[in-house]
Automatic annotation (TrEMBL):
Lineage, broadest ranks: Eukaryota, Fungi, Fungi incertae sedis, Mucoromycota, Glomeromycotina
Record-stated family: Belongs to the TMEM208 family.
Residue span of region Disordered: 141-163
Record keywords, A-Z: Endoplasmic reticulum, Membrane, Transmembrane, Transmembrane helix
Name the record gives this protein: DUF788-domain-containing protein
Compartment annotation: Endoplasmic reticulum membrane
């Protein structure tokens, strides 16, 4: 039964990595064709620096996801290692988010140069999560919420009121 799970994870990972590869090719092809070939006069050194910096970040994250999610097969074609489940939450999910934001910034910056500022959402979101992680235990809001009483507690209170 565990092997069936490994096979399923391996298939889903390969599908996800294929979608990631095609998304990368499509978005960057559109950007290069539109921005570099048709509007080369607006492709200055600052825009080139921003594009290649964000491109390198997305390439690095894509290669890491590829390394983590690619399954290994044995000599008989059986799955030896399914790879890390790429649909899991946590840092893998954040890596996908950074790649998707990068793609959105690349497409948006073709039409409006100020769209590069949208990339600041990534560190702002990280700061928000850090703030939430450290400040949530100290907020004290959990202590003020009254707990719902169980049936047994309600029954005991009724007995005490009758006496």
């Amino acid at each position: 039964m565990a092997k069936q799970s490994d096979k399923k994870i391996a298939q889903e990972n390969l599908k996800c990595l294929n979608n990631l590869k095609w998304g990368f090719i499509i978005v960057n092809s559109i950007y290069c064709i539109f921005r570099i070939l048709y509007h080369f006069e607006s492709f200055g050194s600052r825009t080139a620096l921003l594009y290649f910096a964000t491109l390198s970040i997305s390439i690095y994250l894509g290669l890491e996801l590829n390394k983590l999610g690619t399954p290994r097969y044995g000599p008989r074609g059986n799955v030896e290692w399914s790879g890390i489940d790429l649909s899991s939450k946590g840092s893998i999910d954040y890596m996908f988010d950074v790649i998707y934001v990068t793609w959105a910034v690349h497409i948006g910056s073709m039409f409006y140069e100020g769209f590069w500022l949208f990339y600041l959402l990534i560190p702002l979101y990280a700061l928000y999560n850090i703030w939430k992680l450290f400040m949530n235990p100290f907020s004290g809001s959990e202590g003020n919420v009254p707990q719902e009483k169980s049936k047994r507690q309600k029954k005991m209170e009724k007995r005490q009121l009758k006496q």
